[in-house]
Amino acid sequence: MAKFILHVGDAKCGSTSIQGSLKQARASLLENGLVYETGSSGSNHIDLVRLVRPHSRGNLEESLVRGKEIVESLRATLKKDQTVLLSAENLLALPPEEFLPILRQISPEDPEIKVIAYVRAPTDMYLSYAQQALKGNRYFPKPESFHRPLDRFLSAWRDFPFVSEFWVRPFDRKRLAGGDVTEDFAGVLQELTGREIALPQTARNRSLSAEQMIVLQNLRRSVLPDHDGKLHPISGRYIRWFLQLNKVEMIGHKPALSGAACGAVAKINRGMVARLNALFPGVDMVLREGDATTWTCGADVADLLADSSPEIVSQLTSLMPHFSPELHQGMTAQARNALEALLSSDPERRRKQLRLTKQMLRDSDCVPAARVIRPKLLRVLAPD
After folding, report:
1. Over pLDDT 70: what percentage of the chain?
2. Domain spans of the chain, in order of start
3. Which of 15, 257, 337, 353 could disulfide-pair with 89, CB 3.0 to 4.6 Å?
4. How high is the pLDDT of residue 231?
5. Are strands 163-170 and 111-119 parallel, antiparallel or unpaired?
6. What is each CA distance from 252 to 75, 130, 207, 296, 383, in whole angstroms?
7. Which string of DSSP letters, residue by residue, matches 19-48?
8. Contact at 8 Å (CB) between 58 and 68?
9. Given this model, what pLDDT does residue 378 score?
10. pLDDT exceeds cutoff 70 at 152
11. Which fold has domain 2-120+171-193?
């Protein structure tokens, strides 16, 4: 019997941290009989799912090639006493019978499948979904339509005939082992394998600030209106800049849902959460109910947010060449003032932020503006 452990997600529940840690620990996992092979697919097995559901915002043809590469590698190297460990957050919503042919390609024997899933209340994960959507679209899922049938997804995997063990863990730092999803996942692996499993800590995903979300939507609307549904180098460049700045120090407000938006998400998911908690008592999922204010169904991401600063939005915009083309000629007074206002008062953090901004301007072919920024200096207002 072929043995598999499937980490099926859910999205926005620490999958990136888990997968990065698993890839780093491949050698030690193999010593414990666990095979984690991703080929050239990065650190996860999303490309295996695309073999079943051929859809990708990136290059689908390349994704399918990578998926077949993983299957071939596992089929050629898998030994009888080993367990294949697969991790892909889009597995959760995939009916398990659709993924069974992929497992049979890896090994033709009947599989014994052990499943691990992490779940998060829709009111906690909705804003992350909206943020992710804006990276490739002008639009975001409306809170009144954001329904996650987690009860149905989980039940399908739990009841699949080849599943012998099924673990559902709440993605709540207060309830995770050590307050960390990677440590928690390692503990589950130990329970499933009877082996001592240690996984290295990895950096957590960084979030855009509320103001950066607003700027990103404005960019998708005004500069990239014909590229919805696609990642684009222009938006990608600014997203990297935002996230790198935030790694040093958050620029703007940490995003939080407005009470009305939170209430709209809670309303549509209330029944699902009740069913989920009845099916899986240990999860104890709790919805944040928000307030009684009626959601107005606005199309601006600013409508979702509890707090944001129009001034910071304006300052960020003044530093972005696609909003301020004068930067191609040199640093504007508005951009100088924005740098002075936005960046940290801590000298070392400020130097890092200046270096990142200088690189963003160079990448945007704004060399004259970039030359003005001297990361070793604490002030940027003085002209050349």
Report:
1. 95
2. 2-120+171-193, 210-254+309-372
3. 15
4. 86
5. parallel
6. 49, 18, 11, 25, 27
7. HHHHHHTHHHHHHTTEE---TTSTTS-HHH
8. no
9. 46
10. yes
11. Rossmann fold (3.40.50)
| C-beta atoms surrounding 159 within 10 Å | 10
- Residues 355-383: pLDDT tens digits? 999 999 999 999 999 998 875 554 554 44
What residues have CB less than 8 Å from 13, skipping those under 6 apart? 89, 118, 119, 120, 125, 171, 181
| Tens-digit pLDDT profile for residues 171-192 | 998 999 999 999 999 999 999 9
Nearest to 87 by CA among 37, 142, 33: 37
Ramachandran region, residue 194 (left: φ > 0; alpha: ψ -120 to 50; beta: rest): left
Q: Where are the beta strands (DSSP E) in the chain?
A: 2-7, 34-35, 83-87, 111-119, 163-170
Q: Are 57 and 232 in contact (CB under 8 A)?
A: no
Tokens of 56: 């990708």
Comparing CA positions, the residue from 170, 212, 157 lying closest to residue 4 is 157
Cβ within 8 Å of residue 12, ≥6 positions away: 120, 125, 128, 129, 132, 171
Task: Label each residue of 109-156 as H, E or C.
Answer: CCEEEEEEEEECCHHHHHHHHHHHHHCCCCCCCCHHHCCCCHHHHHHH
How large is the greatest C-alpha to C-alpha distance in the chain, in angstroms?
Answer: 72
| Residue linked to tokens 């559902």 | 168
Q: Can you name the residues that pair with 225 across neighbouring β-strands? A: none
Q: What residues pair up with 340 in beta bridges, in sequence order?
A: none
CA separation for the pair 133, 135 (Å, rounded) = 5
pLDDT band, very low/low/confident/very high, at 1 (cuts 50, 70, 90): confident
- Span 287-335, pLDDT tens digits: 988 776 667 778 899 999 999 999 999 999 999 999 999 999 999 999 9
Is 149 within 8 Å of 196 (Cβ atoms)? no
Taking the C-alpha atoms of 265, 158, 105 and 82 in order, what is their torsion angle to the nearest 10 degrees? 110
pTM of the entire predicted model: 0.87
Token couple for 223: 């500069």
Residue 145, both tokens: 């339509």
Kindly report the length of the chain.
Answer: 384
CA distance 227 to 232: 8
